[in-house]
Design a protein that fits this description.
The strands form seven sheets. The chain has a seven-stranded mixed beta sheet with strand order 12-25-26-27-23-24-13. A seven-stranded mixed beta sheet has the order 21-18-19-20-14-17-22, with no helix packed on it. The radius of gyration is 31 Å and the shape is elongated. The chain has 13 helices and 27 strands. The chain is 26% helix and 24% strand. The chain binds adenosine-5'-triphosphate (ATP) and magnesium ion. The site of adenosine-5'-triphosphate (ATP) has 14 residues, from α2 and β8.
Length: 557
């Protein structure tokens, strides 16, 4: 797989740690992991973690594991597992043979739990969930010991085995670590390690009715796989002492080291899988891959490239303090990539017919058009020109204000790659709306310049009326109209104009063989891609991003 990821990445505190560990001989080879929970689709925040973990492994000639953190027995996981693998690959990364499931470690984890009990460091507790919470204390008050805390090792071993054998009801017993109910860190106040859940698991079936908790599973899974640097987001900072405590009790050295970094937050975007699921289930969006979703699947369908997403992840860097990144930066990275790589084409989104009265009826000529001025090797194409063409409704005004230089009665403009035309007359419908323009062209201006040197102030895109294809075009905008959509009710922050569907658009004849995923720049308008709903009978395009670049403008100020 071709990759040019992170080669020029500037240093950051994680790389400094790795450099030290290599220099001191603590590690010879770096092993990282990306550990998604298969309970939703991956989003742009996950992309940051993926680029970081796989990027480090690549830069240091190490490996990065893909590990599904599937300790919660849930139902529709298979779809998520497949989408996650697909998305990581699409982003340009490869875990090779290192695909793992935390559930594959259930036997080993059970053994580690038994070992903890034998050491007198774990006990079976019969407090209810509610009581456990009460006993835990608060940030300012210490907790108090569970009455079950001082059970004998034998009794604990017996009860834990019976938990495993299904003798107890859900919620009646849990296994807890015996650490310190007075610890200033609430996480260390005898955390729950195992709970009873009489649910079958997508991989282990009905073998287990007790399931290990995240904190117990994660550190041990890392250790079992020989992970050297276990990189996670800042919320887990308080869990680090527990991560280390568990490994110290039951796992021989060397231990993986947990390192926290700031998660990605983006303006106008929600990133919580729970909230994204809510949008999918309530039908606010058409699915996880709705082009307005911040999921990798949504971004891909919208027309994002893996290169643009990786570039974005490189630019935002890795820090220890949480912040919110402007979504305009993501769009800027996308435009930069698409500007280099997208072939140009002309499309008329809201057509207005122009009849060129001095152009011979029935004549069609083919004019040469540049495919990509950014890429000399992209060559040219031929586009048909005829007596009747379409231009954009916006490009004509009956009574133009001072700064409007496009078409108006009596005015001459250039048609891109074609001729100068002059508006000679206007046709109205019964309600007084302009429905057609009459014009003349100057045959001497073929290719777009006049031999007498006269200038025009505007160049319009166009397509020939009978020699173009109908298309549906979906215009997307941000899903939320509030900078922080997490403030207040999610549903109230929705942008009512996040999707507009244009059904009368026209595109060049050259678009007849396009395939879903193909990307183009529609001249003067923006970047568009062919949607998965598109077929030769009905072309459907998504607007990926308009041309206007708010990020670049902000940088110019
Ligand atoms: P969510 O809050 O969206 O449900 P999560 O953290 O529960 O996300 P996981 O599947 O557990 O989702 O995440 C897998 C990995 O991706 C974790 O290591 C997590 O730290 C990382 N990750 C998740 N969200 C972000 C984010 N916004 N920025 C950076 N990394 C993230
Ligand atoms: Mg999680």
């Amino acid at each position: 797989m071709p990759m040019d990821v992170n080669v020029n990445t500037p240093s950051n505190f994680i790389r400094n740690i790795i450099d030290e560990d290599l220099a001191s001989g603590k590690h010879k080879k770096i092993i990282t992991r990306f550990p998604p929970e298969p309970n939703g689709y991956l989003h742009i925040g996950h992309a940051k973690s993926i680029c970081l973990n796989f990027g480090l492994a690549k830069d240091y000639n190490g490996t990065c594991h893909l590990r599904f953190d599937d300790t919660n027995p849930e139902k529709e996981e298979v779809e998520y597992i497949e989408s996650i693998q697909n998305d990581v690959r699409w982003l340009g990364f490869d875990w090779g043979e290192h695909l793992y499931f935390a559930s594959d470690y259930f036997d080993q984890l059970y053994g580690f739990a038994v070992e903890l009990i034998k050491q007198g460091k774990a006990y079976v507790c019969e407090l209810t969930a509610e009581q456990i919470r009460e006993y835990r204390g608060t940030l300012t008050e210490p907790g108090k010991d569970s009455p079950y805390r001082n059970r004998s090792v034998e009794e604990n071993l017996d009860l834990f085995e019976r938990m495993k054998n299904g003798e107890f009801e859900e919620g009646s017993h849990v296994l807890r670590a015996k650490i310190d109910m007075a610890s200033p860190n609430v996480v260390m106040r005898d955390p729950v390690l195992y709970r009873i859940r009489k649910v079958s698991h997508h991989r282990t079936g009905d073998k287990w009715c007790i399931y290990p908790m995240y904190d117990f599973t994660h550190c041990l899974s890392d250790a079992i796989e020989g992970i050297t640097h276990s990189i996670c987001t800042l919320e887990f900072e308080n869990n680090r002492p527990l991560y280390e405590w568990i490994l110290e009790q039951v796992f021989p050295d060397p231990h993986p080291r947990q390192i926290e970094f700031a998660r990605l937050n983006l303006s106008y975007t929600v990133m919580s899988k729970r909230k994204l699921l809510r949008l999918v289930e309530s039908g606010v969006v058409s699915g996880w891959d709705d082009p307005r979703m911040p999921t990798i699947a949504g971004l891909r369908r919208r027309g994002y490239t893996p290169e643009a997403i990786r570039d974005f992840c490189d630019r935002i860097g890795v820090a220890k303090a949480n912040s919110v990144v402007d979504v305009a930066l993501l769009e800027h990275c996308l435009r930069e990539d698409l500007n280099r790589t997208s072939p140009r084409t002309m499309a008329v989104l809201r057509p207005l017919k122009v009849v060129i009265e001095n152009y011979p009826e029935g004549q069609v000529e083919y004019l040469e058009a540049m495919n990509n001025p950014q890429d000399p090797e992209a060559g040219t194409r031929l586009i048909p020109f005829a007596r009747e063409i379409f231009i954009e409704q916006d490009d004509f005004m009956l009574d133009p204000p001072k700064k409007f230089f496009r078409l108006a009665p009596g005015r001459e403009v250039r048609l891109r790659f074609a001729y100068f035309i002059t508006c000679t007359d206007v046709v109205y419908d019964d309600e007084g709306n302009v429905v057609e323009i009459r014009a003349t062209y100057d045959p001497e201006t073929k290719g777009g310049s006049a031999p007498d040197g006269r200038k025009v102030k505007a160049t319009l895109h166009w397509v020939a009326a009978d020699h173009s294809l109908p298309a549906e075009i979906r215009l997307y905008d941000h899903l939320f109209n509030k900078e922080d959509p997490n403030e207040g009710e999610l549903e109230e922050n929705l942008n009512p104009n996040s999707l507009e569907i244009l059904t009368d658009a026209r595109v060049e004849l050259n678009m007849k063989d396009v395939q879903p995923g193909d990307r183009f720049q529609f001249e003067r308008q923006g970047y568009y891609c062919v949607d998965v709903d598109s077929s030769p009978e009905k072309l459907v395009f998504n607007r990926t991003v308009p041309l206007r670049d708010t990020w670049a403008k902000m940088q110019d100020k």
